[in-house]
Amino acid sequence: MFSLFKKINNLFLFFLTWIVYAVFHAVSMYFIVSVDIELLIIDAVVHSGIFASLGLLLLHILFYGKYETWLSVQRTINYVALGVLTISFWLGSGYLLNYLLLQESATLFIPTLPVRGVIGLLIYLIFILLYSLKTKQILQQNNDSDFSPEPDKSNSNYKTIDRITVKTGQKLHIIPIQDIMCLQADGDYVQLITKEGTHLKEQTMKYFELHLPKNIFVRIHRSYMVNIEYISRIESYGKQNQEIALKNGQYLKMSIAGYKLLKDALQL
């Protein structure tokens, strides 16, 4: 029941936000172009509805694209590209719908295109900012509730492995553990990332945590294990957030518990 109430509340806030924007849009256009109030209302509803739909689409793109895991330069480039596409589509489709609904009267809104572009840019920047803040909050919550270090750090009860076999088609790859830079959880599989490439192994992270030598491999996050020999540096960002840079340039985020384990392994 609480979950249903929360969804209804979020849906109400979503529609309320875009109703407020529609009013703001109509008022803004009122001071720029001289048209009838009915035309202003139609124009505001059209552009508000399009941007609301684009907002939902952007959320899915950012969520499934896992932008929060990308390097900052990659995120910036993709945010700029998404912004250009979003605003261009908003302006183009908005004018097209206006023309279909208002016919020749739609041309009265052409002088407002530069102002619309600025408004669209501001809304997009606010949207990305809110998404980034929410993502950081979720990551922090995940870090706070992440796995806890095992009380017994020894592997005395488990056989330590020195190689991993991965079957790809008709080929069987034998990967020495010293060639593995890091391991990343991928659903029911684990990605073994080496200097030569990535291999997919049907196994759990827990298995590797128990069977890989703990003086070499450290579970820094519920999704990552790292070979300490391939760590280039440790960097801090935000409040109590750390990530490591591997020698291949890849960055991995650490949980609070994982950071403690890594410090112990590196004797920091």
Describe the structure.
The chain has 2 domains: 2-144, no CATH class; 163-266, Beta Barrel (OB fold (Dihydrolipoamide Acetyltransferase, E2P)), CATH 2.40.50.1020. The chain has 6 helices and 10 strands; from the N terminus they run H-H-H-H-E-E-E-E-E-H-E-E-E-E-E-H. The protein has helices spanning 2-30, 37-65, 72-102, 113-144, 205-211, 256-266; strands at residues 163-168, 171-176, 180-186, 189-194, 198-201, 217-221, 224-227, 231-236, 242-246, 251-254.
Quick structural overview:
The protein has 268 residues and is an alpha+beta fold. Helices cover 52% and strands 20% of the residues.
| Arithmetic mean pLDDT | 82
The SSE order reads HHHHEEEEEHEEEEEH
How many strands, which pairing sense, and closed or not: the largest β-sheet?
5 strands, antiparallel
Q: What gap, in angstroms, lies between the N and C termini?
A: 48 Å
- The counted number of beta strands is 10
In one word, what is the shape?
A: elongated
- Helix/strand-derived category reads alpha+beta
Q: Topology of this structure?
A:
Elements: H1 2-30, H2 37-65, H3 72-102, H4 113-144, E1 163-168, E2 171-176, E3 180-186, E4 189-194, E5 198-201, H5 205-211, E6 217-221, E7 224-227, E8 231-236, E9 242-246, E10 251-254, H6 256-266
